[in-house]
């Protein structure tokens, strides 16, 4: 095994990290399945026994087909991603009941391996965006056997009932088959590191199922497990939850259904599993939104997280799909989903230009890292292009590629440092020129000054700097040592006031990591450090040793 980065050596000395990090220091655990590590309220993904940070993207809804996927690898390479999220369609996998076609998923895994990219697979089964559009036609056609939800007025809608054993059994059987395929083709290689169970589950069209079977459950006592978990008194759904009874009942029903699917899948192959979420209030919070109309009722929305945690212990992560108009809202959402019992993971977000709020989206990765996310993936890599339709560089998209080009070589280190709670970030917004990141006696003053971006000694205004999405990650490696990665920003280290001494840079090494091994390429000094550490586009990684005099 190669020598270990100093950062990790230092962290091994940190109390509380010994268990998790002792695994990093041993020879690669190729036999160990991908898993979530959890310690001190923080999480990280472990892949082949080492910390792993998915710098990801998700393909378009109809791009999980081999012929389509083939076209996306040049984009994946240009983006410098390390992980691709790809859907697996129930309608494709089980075209006739009990007859399975594994060729698509096998091909997807082979393609990813050929491109040295890990996969997250999303099971498009009973639910896709609060509807049932990906179930096989033999399910769609047999409404007797596979009951739909009924609205309050008794209308059928195109959402399967979560209160039906027949629906559950059919989906579960197919999902278990999928996990069996993964065990067969990937049990020892771990190309697939995580599985999303269903997609934006819940119901559009009704707050809950009003079918006779569901109604009977609704009029019965709330399951003891839920009452206990929420610290409520026993009673019927209406008695316990009042005005929220319909949505809470639907959330319990969906979560309980998905839990049984995930648990059965894990019996085949226990990969980490998560569910994603159509936000309750994308544009603001709190905003009056109607479950079943404005967002799928019963999904793992911010108001239903406790219900989901109680109902779905086989689901490791309740994850937000973040499509929001500004950074304030972005932060709110991350805060709602990062809980001691729930890692923050962002499986979908805006970025590839076709969603409102995508402007300056390159900053969101850094916001998310600062908030403790364990992975990140903008949606719709099909729309990613470094050059716009007018033949000119699209600097918004260039910014996304810069992010991953900068961080991919240090991704293992990043995951380890995140897990140790040593990472802070700063991201520019229009009008925001300075952010101070403090680490005990040291502080890093991050600035995005217009005079820096426009001054002659930087070689003129950087086209990406003009978009005001400068970004910096600072991680503490030791008492006086830091790892800094940045783009379009300046960083000045100083002693946190009040200080009796003066700070000085001892050395600033530019370089990168090869796995856990730091490789220095040069020392920064002179114009690169005199007024502060200048992180010009396309970005650099440095290790800084600080001293005082
Ligand atoms: C969120 C869904 O989860 C995705 O599958 C996709 O439909 C995007 N929205 C929007 O295109």
What does this structure look like?
The chain has 549 residues and is of the alpha/beta class. It has 18 helices and 23 strands. The structure holds (2R,3S,4R,5S)-2-(hydroxymethyl)piperidine-3,4,5-triol (DGJ). (2R,3S,4R,5S)-2-(hydroxymethyl)piperidine-3,4,5-triol binds next to loops.
User: Could you give a short account of the major beta sheet?
Assistant: 8 strands, parallel
Write out the strand line-up for the largest beta sheet, numbering strands in chain order: 4-5-6-9-10-11-12-13
User: Helix- and strand-based class?
Assistant: alpha/beta
Rounded Rg: 24 Å
Low-confidence stretches: 1-28, 454-458
- Overall geometry: globular
Bound ligands, named by name, code or SMILES: (2R,3S,4R,5S)-2-(hydroxymethyl)piperidine-3,4,5-triol
Q: Gap between N and C termini, in Å? A: 39 Å
Number of helices: 18
Strand content: 25-35%
Mean pLDDT: 92
The percentage helix is 25-40%
Q: Could you give the count of β-strands? A: 23
